[in-house]
Each structure stands twice: as structure tokens, then as C-alpha cells.
Amino acid sequence: MSTPLNPQNGEPDSVTIENAIELKDVEGLSQGQIVRSRFFRHKGAMVGLAVLIFVVLLAFTSVGFGPVPGWWPQGGGSGKVINPGGAPTMSLPTWLGGSGFAIGEHPFGQDENGHDMFYYVMKGTQTSLGVMFTIGGIACVLGVLIGSLSGFFRGRTDGMLMRFTDLVITVPTIVIGAVIGKMAGSLSAAIFGAALGLILWPSLARLVRGEFLSLREREFVDAARVAGASNTRIIFKHILPNAIGVIIVATTLLMSSAILLETALSYLGFGIQSPDISLGQLINQYQSSFATRPWLFWWPGLFIVVIALCINFIGDGLRDAFDPRQKRIPSQKKMDRAAAGSHETTIPMQAQGGHVGLGGGS
Amino acid sequence: MLTFITRRLLAGIATLFVAIFMMYLLVDLAIDPLADLQEYRGADKAAKIAAREDMLNLDTNVVVRFFQWLGHVFQGDFGVAWRSGQDVGTLVSHAIGSTLQLVTAATVLSLILGVSVGIVSALRQYATFDYLIIFLSFLLYSLPSFWVAVLLKQWGAIGFNDFLADPNLSIPVLIVVAALMGLLWVLAIGGSVTRRLQTFGLAFAATLGVMLYVQLTDWWADPQLGPVLIAITGVGFAFALTAVSAGLRNRRALYTALATVAIGVALYYPLQGFFDSVAPSHLMMFGLAIVAIGVGVLVGFLFRGPDWGVSARTGGITAFVIAAMIYIDRVMQVWPAYVNSNAIGGRPIATFGDRTPNLGGNYWVQVLDQYTHLLLPTLTLILVAFAGYTRYSRSSMLEVMSQDYIRTARAKGLSERTVIMRHGFRNSLIPLATIVPIDVITLIGGAVVTERIFNRPGMGALFLNSLQEAEIEPVMAYLLITAALAIIANIVADLIYAALDPRIRVNA
Predict the structure, then answer these.
(1) Rounded to the nearest 10 degrees, how much is the dihedral formed by the CA atoms of A163, A166, A168, A172?
(2) Which among A4, A229, A338, B157 could disulfide-bond with A224, CB atoms 3.0 to 4.6 Å apart, if both were Cys?
(3) Which of B22, B26, B142 sits opposite A312 (nearest CB)?
């Protein structure tokens, strides 16, 4: 595009306007700011984030955490059964068909011995969230480490590490999970999560390896090497920041499958076991009472679904934010406004388009 | 190519060996065959423990035991599950049969549904339908399968059985359902306002008509398709298939499909007599399906023309669908007898096991019995797998449709159908082809959770039960099979990818 810019560029008007809107959006912003603003504009992700934060706060403040006491008055012990059968004392407002809004003493109901279900579900949510983040953290560190070493050094290191990855990938996760769960059954949630994290990294490692393989051939890596940067510096300062999008998105999605795996294993009796409480273990414990006391079954499941759904939405928002190929289509109103103001603004915007090479003729 | 396969196979065998060795050590650590004896309070406790250690060879080092086990496996002997004394080979072959039944239907259905919905969703990117599908797939993806399964078992089975006992819906309910279906079709197809109104009217009338027919003929109590319905659906399917795969302007393909439908309907009554006069089996049905496809292909071939391959393909698919409808019709015919039999007692949708014990009856009753047992577990698996396939095919299709060759295809004046089906759809299947074999083959390892909840005696159940019973032989047989299949699946996926995408070179 050395010739003076042609405002038309052979593209249809709508495409030109779209590009102009997008370019104006990112004008003068750093990569991090662009990603952040795209993420904050993603409605699904923001709702997911808000709900997830609410669930985390609710779970950790209500029943207390470790030595810290919570604001919820009921403990884990058995008590008097309030409603017949232990039905939930929570009721909907009258305009929703309930008998007036009330939370009551046992909003999620009680089991036949008068245990408070809200306490159990919150404790279970704490455990499941903890296990999920442990798995995510460990799998992320291991996957990035192995993937980046493999992709950066290639050759024999790559061969050996990838064979090792194949080895771990060979056996279905739920199988290793069951074996580990049986071994670690009497151990705490932290160890169980760590053990699962130790086997869930291969998919991430493969992804990071692919990313490193293509990034290490780029000019900026050559430039850094010519400038005398060490391998460590190139990996951490030059390649890793460029691969961070893929890593974050993959880790998020890994966590959403991790919570499903943990609850499934606990449900099967191989994960968290009584007296420790996890959401899956609660469902396992109470599934036989589904016909008589459905609330014992509903609430733990609902919390699993909500957490997994939130994380999936956050992951989706992150993917859209990091991956510029997934372009948002501007609304019709924005297009109209841009088209109306095009007489004054088209020329400078087109000039920008030429610089970044988004014009059709480049 | 051959060197590539050989190299991958050798590497696979090495991986398999190491993986199995590690798994043997892990399982040996995880299980404790003496656990029940530790609780034992009798005087002869020490003697019993010694006897069991002797029986299971527990004194020997675990590495030595592994090689002994491997040696037996090489001779085709998987050992014996010591608690029940059953031969592991027999156990595994029974379990694989049950698992295959479950996963075949689930995989095929979720694949067809997921891919088509994903493609439509991608073509309607950022439309309401697209957002609806995205949300739905996210929701399904976040559902724990055990939770869904228990819900289906408690609500689906009981609710549907209650409904079958008194299968009547009120007219307003029918109208609301029909309106919802019409709305769904409008969202999926889109277009101008007139087009939308037409779509809505058509879908609404069709749905309402079908539901009224079902209601008024007491179809739930005595379900059947019959030659008339088969003919109507067959013709509809013939038109739809031709429109999608060949274009309605390809008259030869259309006539092939219609001729195939005519042959199928003409054979309806002769086939009923045939089914009654022979002792049917799965193998025979499979053979008949192949024959049907052959007939369809032959019809397409006989119509000749420069592109008879397209006609033959259309004929083959139509013939298979018609044959499947005749088969399903025959299975439906035993429904009243099945439901009212003593073993069933009017509650046909089962939640337990993979067949009704002591049911008796002929081949068709047995098949129907297996179907009623398959319904809920298959639904569970479909719900989860559907979400994955939808997301995958949607993103793959979006990727393809933004490629330059799609723009080229449009620019040279190809019809939208050709652009989407031939240039878009086919290429979007390439990445899908690499995950499907892995999915299918790893599923043979058993849908562990689903099998456990519905008490199906499949591979996953075999693994879980043996692990709890501390029997190492069945556990290891299971792990050996699943690991070997996983490795084969990966090699197959690579080969398919290389065959489909000319940019990939395996020899390099």
C-alpha cells in the first residue's frame, strides 16, 4: 500500500465501516487493555464472573472457613426437624406463587436427622471449589512447563516429553481418578485435587507445545536471541506472554471439566468421602431419598451446574477477548451512526486501516 | 505411509507396555484383597490370611506378578476373577456386548444431531437461534452426567410411564407445543418476513397434525408406522435429502430417491410375511440393511446420467432410512403385547439393567425390551455428547466459512447449497474426523457413570465393581483393552486426518 489510500479499497461499505469501528475501539490501547475491555464487554462472561464471585463469597463467609467463624447460625450437627419431613423453610414471594418471601432457619431444608442442608451444601461447595482450583493450578503449571520445554527445545527433549504425555493420556482420566481416589480416599481434599491435577495436564501441554513451536520461529524471538538473551529469558519474557491467551482459556475450560470430574468421582465413592463433604458426595449420599426429600438432591446439583456454567461462560469470554479472529459484529445502531458520520471521519479512519494492513488491497 | 504406520504402531506398543506396567503397580497399591479378612474376628484369622495370600500369590514381588500376568495374557488367558471364580475373558466379552449396544446408538445420534445443529447455528451466526444453541450447549456441557441420569431415572421414567398409562394431552397444550416448534423452525431458517410466516405456518400445521394423529389414533397404546405413514415420511425424506445433498434440480437424484421409496413401500407386506416365516437375528437384519442399501445404489446407477454417483448415494441413504422405518415398525407391532405382559406390568420404560429377566418372547420382543432399557441411558449420553459436538462443529464451520475459497466459490456463481454443502460442510468435517474415532473408541471403555446409575453390566460397571471387590485381573483386563483402544484410536485419527487433508504429510 505505497500508493495514496483509496477510500473504497474495493470492499463493500459495511465491511469498511465495521473495520473503522473496530479500529477506533482499539486506538492507542495496549494489548492488555484491549483484551480487558473486550472481556468486560462480554455480557455472558460478566454475568458468569459476578455469579461465581457471589457463590465463592457465599460459600466461604456463611459457614466459616478453617478457624474463621461464619455468619450462618446453624452448625453441621443434627437438630430438631422444623417442617414436616425437613422441607425447606425458604419460600417465594407471593407474586411468584409462594406464601410470602422468607428464608427461615433451614432455607435448603433438612435431612431426616435434622442436619441443616444449607450448611452441608456450603461446605461441599467450599471443598469442590478448592479441589477445582487446585486441579486448575497444578495442571496449568505442569502443562505449561512440559509444553513449553517440549516446544521450545524440540528434538530429543520433545520426543521424550511427548511420549510421556502420550503415556498419561492413554488411560481414561476417570480410571486413573478412580484409582487415585481409592488410594487417596482417606486423605484430604487438597491431596485429592493435587493428585487429579497431576494427571490432567496433557491436553494443556499439547496446546502449549503447539503454540511454542510456531512462536519460536517468529522474528522477535530471533531478535531477542541475537541481542544475547538466554533461553530462560526468551521463554519467560518473549514467548510465554504471547501464549498467555491460549493458556488462560484452556485452563479455565479445564477447571470446568475438573469440577465435573471431581463431583463424578465423589459420587462414585472414589473421591471425597465422609466425613469430608463435597457436592458429588452429597448427591451420592442423598440420591436414594430423591422421591421423599428432593431438596437434598436438588441443591448440591444446582450448585455444581451453576459453578460449571459460570466457568464455561468466563472461558468463552476470555477466548473472545484473546482471539481477535472472533470479531464482534457491531450493532445496527453503531453501523448507522458510523455511516452517518462518515463524511468527516472516513478519511482518517481509512488511513489507519492502511497502516495496520486491514484494508482489502493489502 | 507404511513406515509411518509401523513407527506409530511400535511407539504405541511401547507406550502401552509402560502404561500397563504403571497401572498394574497403581492398582496393586489401590486395592487390598485382605481388607475383609482384617475385620475378621475368628481364631483362624492368620490361617485364612495365609491361605488367601497363597491363593493370590501375594508373597511374590509385584513386578514379578506383573510379568506372570502378562505372560498369561500373551497366551490368551486373562485369568480368573478370584472372588466370583468367573473367567475374565467371558466377563469382558459379555460386558463389551452390553457397552456396545449403549454407545453405538448414543454416539451415532448425538453425532448426527450435534453436527447438524452446530452447522445451522454457524450459518445463522449471531442470530437468536445461534445464541439459543450456544446457551443450550453451555448448559448441557455443564451438567454433571450423574445428576442428569438420576433425574431422568426418577422423573423421566416414572413420568413417562404414568403418561403412557393415560396418554392424553389437552388441546391447548398441543397448540402451545406446536407453536413452540413453529417458532424454533422460524429461528433456525430465518429469511424475510413472508418466509418466516410461511415457515411458521408450515411447521405449526405439521406438528399439530402429527400430534393430533398420534392422539386420535391412540398411537401411544398401539404404536405403528404402517405403509401409509412410511410412504408419506419416505417421500418427505426423499425430497429433503435430495434438496440437501444433490439439489432439487438434479432430477435423476430426486427420481432415484422417490423410486427407492416406492420399492420400499411395495415390499412392506411381503416383508411382514417374510419376518413371520423365518427366525430373525441381528446378523440377518444387518444383512438385509446392506441389501437395502445395495438396492438403493443400484436404482441410482440405473438412472445413469453423467453424475450417477450422486444419484446412487441419494438412493443408498434413502433405502437405508426406509429399511430402518420398516424395521422399527415391525418392532413397534409387538408393543401392546410387550407392555401388557406380566414381566412388564404396564410400565415399559426401564431404569435398571440391560434386559428384563425371564421375559421370553421372540426376537422382536427381545429387541423391544432392549430398546426400552436403552432409552434413558442413551438419552443421558446424548445430552452430554450433543453439547460437545455442537460446539465443535459450530466453531469448525465458522472457521471454514470465513476462508477465501468460500468467497471464491460464491464469486464464481455457485448456488448457496453447493457452497455450503460441498465447500463448507465437507471441509468443516475434517477436524471433526480426528476427534470422533477417539471419542467412539474411548466410549467402549464404558460410560462409567451412566452404567453405574442404570445398573447396566457394561465395561465401566465391570471396572468399578472389580476395583471395589479388589480383583486385579478384571481391572487389568479392562485397562489393557481401553489403553490399547485409545492408542489405536489416536493412530486412526492421524491416518484419517492425513487422508482427508492433503496439506498433512505423514512421510515427511
Answers:
(1) -160
(2) A229
(3) B142
